[in-house]
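User: Modeling request: complex.
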Amino acid sequence: MYPVNLILDEKACVVVGGGEVAYRKIEGLLSAAAAVTVIAPDITEKLFSMYEKGLFAWVKKSYEDGDIKGFFLAVCATDDEEINRRVAAEAKKEGILINVVDRLSLCDFAMPAVIRRGDLLVTSSTNGKSPAMAREIRRELEKFLDAGYAPFIEIMAGLRKEAMTVIPTFREREEFWRSTLDENILKMVREGKLGEAEDKIRNAISSFGPQS
Ligand SMILES: C[C@@]1(CC(=O)O)C2=NC(=C\c3[nH]c(c(CCC(=O)O)c3CC(=O)O)Cc3[nH]c(c(CC(=O)O)c3CCC(=O)O)/C=C3\N/C(=C\2)[C@@H](CCC(=O)O)[C@]3(C)CC(=O)O)/[C@H]1CCC(=O)O
Ligand SMILES: NC(=O)c1ccc[n+]([C@@H]2O[C@H](COP(=O)([O-])OP(=O)(O)OC[C@H]3O[C@@H](n4cnc5c(N)ncnc54)[C@H](O)[C@@H]3O)[C@@H](O)[C@H]2O)c1
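Assistant: Request completed. Predicted assembly structure:
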């Protein structure tokens, strides 16, 4: 498996099926800001209330060949083996990225277990060997990934820009960040001392120079 983070902003993605598993996949796609269409004759209550809020489009029908044409990515989450196989075949023919929820052999990509903290994304997968284990590892890692990381990444985006104006070369910036952004900073973030961590880095940027 080769890890990539797909950029889905507003890209047309389709989910075939509207059960509990489809719900999990739809939530993931919406978290990535995809434009989601669901094709299914019926959907769960939870999904229906999301549909009523306008979170995705719903084509209320059973899948037929041709239904996923034009989509960038497709997820097939029905309980019908024959439909899963046909959706995968259409995706292959049309060159659409496909995930069939319980059939790695029909997939172009598999879903990992996901932790999001703002723009921080941490994922866990087992090459399909044990999804339950991917889930448990995700739950374990969640304990260490503090909510403070999300606002601090926003702060870091600003500090990074400042460093670019002060520290001239890529090589020096690389060296700078590797020595400045250490475990003490991460500890401050975990303790909620975001301002203190920011000041420490800003001081290091302003004192950067041949003499330092
Ligand atoms: C990570 C996660 C993401 C997500 O779904 O978004 C995910 N499965 C999750 C949970 C989960 N899935 C299953 C159980 C029951 C226990 C068990 O069987 O282990 C549990 C645990 C639970 O729900 O407690 C059943 C299951 N899943 C697959 C098969 C088929 C097979 O193995 O042949 C079967 C057997 C069906 C059957 O027996 O009928 C296949 C896949 N499931 C994957 C992803 C892909 C590989 C990921 C990897 O590399 O590990 C892959 C290959 C394809 C795909 O779906 O992309 C999500 C955790 C999210 C979270 O909580 O964070
Ligand atoms: N990968 C995973 O993580 C995982 C975990 C558990 C189960 N599964 C498998 O995923 C499948 C779906 O599970 P579920 O619990 O969501 O099932 P479900 O029965 O709740 O939902 C199935 C959905 O598929 C839709 N559907 C059925 N035929 C269709 C068709 N011809 N066209 C469009 N939609 C159609 C139904 O309307 C329903 O919304 C099952 O086969 C299950 O074995 C996968």
